[in-house]
Amino acid sequence: MKAKRALISVSDKTGVVEFAKALTALGIEIVSTGGTMQTLQQAGIPVIYISDVTGFPEMMDGRVKTLNPYIHGGILAVRDNPEHAAAMQEHGICPIDLVVVNLYPFRQTIAKPGVTQEDAVENIDIGGPAMVRSAAKNFRYVSVVVNPARYDTVLKELQEQGEVTLATRMALVREAFTHTAEYDAAISRYFSQQTGEGEYPSTLILPWEKLQDLRYGENPHQTAAFYRDNAATGGVAHARQLAGKELSFNNIVDLEAAYAIVSEFAKPAAAVIKHTNPCGTATAEDIATAYKLAYEADPVSAFGGIVALNRPVDAATAQQLTAIFLEAVIAPAFEAAALEILTAKKNVRLLEAALPQADAKQRYDIKTVSGGMLIQSTDTADALQTEWKTVSKRLPTQAELKELELAWKVVKHVKSNAIVISRDGRTIGVGAGQMNRVGSAEIALKQAAEAARGAVMSSDAFFPFRDTVDAAAKAGITAIIQPGGSMRDEESIAAADEHGIAMIFTGMRHFKH
Fold first, then answer.
1. Which residues belong to the active site?
2. Which residue of 2, 277, 381, 451 sits 20 to 30 Å from the alpha carbon of 361, by its own alpha carbon?
């Protein structure tokens, strides 16, 4: 059925003038509302004002303009239903074949600092979703376009065939209902917060956008896809890939683990990740030195790893990065010279991403269980040095405090049970994921070897027994940081005093399961 009339009412006016001109050239008349109509008229496009169709003015500050039988009858009428056709003829309702609508910018409005509830409410679209849903319901006769990126496809089919194909209309229906669902989810989330229901509403709606289907999941027999939370702006899901092969499921998981670590530090920091655990993490006065120290912490494990940096990548750092095989590098930016060096290695994936600290409050950690899921806020909290409590007789030195802070920031990103050994601004031993804490300590101390003498140790949770302190003392550890809170804390403190080790309690645990 040849398209004859389009209704256009959009908040996002990207490409709408060009699209409307092309529709007019095809002989399709355009009906429009206030702001959109003015935009089209200023471009010299003939437009029928919505009020001339409904017989009513736009009223109540624009709240009522399209909620009218002349509009919804024209959209919803089943064209080959005799009763519908008779009703349209009796009441003078003209069919609307193309509905081009996107909604008031509610999400953008509530993201503004200091936005009032009144402003938020006025940006809740009523007529727009109603038209979108009406057109989507009647997709066999009506095309609904909510995404400006679809204009070219729709226009091409109209130009070639005089109508939009059923296959395209079906795709447009999916986009339309997704558009209104995302919109309602944002409003629901806003009012959950406004009414004090809290961060975790009784019904959880996650309007995430699929970025890509992945070749497979953690293993080749698993399917997978990558989604993005559009309420956030920084981090891995909003990264821009500059070069390299397509990201895999495991790449993305490791990139998140790596970038989360370097985001902890104000100083230049680098982390090398394998299977979500850090092979090495380091800070320095410049990013090239930080990477060198992180790599040298465990060069064997670094092969085939993921590298994260919290500073732009310069040529000096890029030269070091090309020395071994890496799966991916993620950083806030890449200097032109660095890109030239790194892109010479064709397969390495290069990602540019804003550091995610600013979005910490919007980020969640989700774990699935059979038939459901668990959701929690991301572990971005930290016990500051001002909150630390020295429980041993010996106080830590300033140099030890500096190392303890690095080890403490890293240990929360290591699989529990987690132990991290640090010295000279870098990790030198990491024990992860063991069934008992002393087992993790033994792995970390073995990796550190002789360098453990004079180093410091961090633990993500308390010591249930004094055995970890004894093992640390035997290896030459001089200071330990841990949350405290065990029934046997006094035994661990006594062991520290016996060995002359400085021990700090943070009062904050960092399990990672």
1. 137, 275
2. 277
